[in-house]
Amino acid sequence: MTVANEWNFSAGPGALPAEVLDAVQEAIIALPETGMSVLCTSHRSAWFEDLLAEAEANLRDLLAVPATHGIVFLQGGSSLQFSMIPANFAPPSCDDPLYVRSGYWSAKAITEAGCVRPVAVVWDGAAEGFRTLPSAAALAERHADHPRRSAAPAYLHYVSNETVEGLQFAEAPGLADLPRVADMSSDFLSRPADVAAHAFLYAHAQKNLGPAGVTVCVLDRQLLDRVPAGLPPMLDYRTHLQHGSNYNTPPVFGIYVLTLVTRWLRDTIGGVATMQRINQEKAARLYQTLEGLGELVQMHADPRFRSVMNATFRFRDPRLDTLFLEQATAAGFSGLAGHRSLGGLRASLYNAVTPTAVARLCDFLADFAAAHG
Ligand SMILES: *Cc1c(COP(=O)(O)O)cnc(C)c1O
Description:
binds pyridoxal-5'-phosphate; alpha/beta; Aspartate Aminotransferase, domain 1; 7-stranded mixed β-sheet; Aspartate Aminotransferase, domain 2
C-alpha cells in the first residue's frame, strides 16, 4: 500500500482538505475565473487583487479581526518573523522584550531575536524537558523575581502551540498590559483567537492553511509608531501594509490555496468554533486511545497542556517506535515520526485531518499494542 493524503499525520507541511486539493489541481492548469494557470497569473492582475482582498476579508470574518488590526501576507516563513518582530517593535529605546521559552520553536524565536537585540526570558521550561507551560500566576511570579526586570518591556512573546513537544496554551498568557505577540503557526484557525488581545500574531501557512511560502501577520497598527527609521523596506512591516501585501511579487499560489482553505473553513466546516469542536473531539479520541495503552506508551506533555494539534508519545521500548513506524507506513499512514530533536512519535491532527482518519489511527494503535503488549 502506498501512503495517501487521507492518512497524513505530518506536523508540517500538513494535510489539506481533499476538496481544496481537487480545486488546486484544476487551477494549476486553468483558474475557473480566468482560464489561465494560477502559476502563470500576474500579481498585478485584477484577479489577484480580488483574491488578496478576499483572503483578508475571510480571515477577518473567521477570526473577528478588529478594525484596529491590519493583515499582511509575507514570505520568509515564521522564522523571518523571529527577527522582524524585534527589529520593528523593540527598537533600542525600548526595554528588553520578554519571551516565554516553552519548547523548540520559542527557543528558536529567542535565539533569533537575540541576533537583533537583547531579550529577556521570563519563563523557561527547559529544566523540565519542555513538558509543561506556565500558569498566569507562575508567569507573574517569575516576572516579579526577574533579575533584569524592567518597567516597560517592549512586548511579551509566546508560542501558542509548541509543535515539537505537543504543548498548547488553552488561553493566551499575559503579563499586566504588555502587548502580546504570538507565534500561532501550528494552531492558527484551529480555534477562535482573541485577536484584540494581541498586538501581533503570526502563522505561516504550511501547518493549517496551505503550502509553505506564505505567512499571515495580524498586527495592531498602533505598533507601527515604534518602527525605527532605516529598516530595509522588505523588513519593515509598514511597506507591506502600505502596499497591501503586493510590494514585490507575493506568493500568488500560496495565497490562492490559503483562500480556498478559508472558504472551506467557512462553507464546509462552518467556522472556527465548529472547527475547534471537531479538533477537540479528534484529540480526545487519540489521547484516550493512548492512555488506554497503559504502561506500553509514554506521553511527552503534561496532561494539563496537551496540544489539540500535535500528540507526542513514544513506546517505552524504543524498538517498538521503529516497528510501529514501519507497520504504519505499510498500512498507508504517514508523518508519524517525532521531530528529529525529540525522537519518539507524533501525530498531528490539523484541521484537514478528518475524524475518520483519526479513528483509523486509533484502531491501528490499539491493534499494534495488542499484538506487541
Ligand atoms: C513549524 C514552525 C515554525 C517554523 O516556521 P517556518 O515557516 O519553517 O520558518 C515556527 N513556529 C512554529 C510554532 C512552528 O510550528
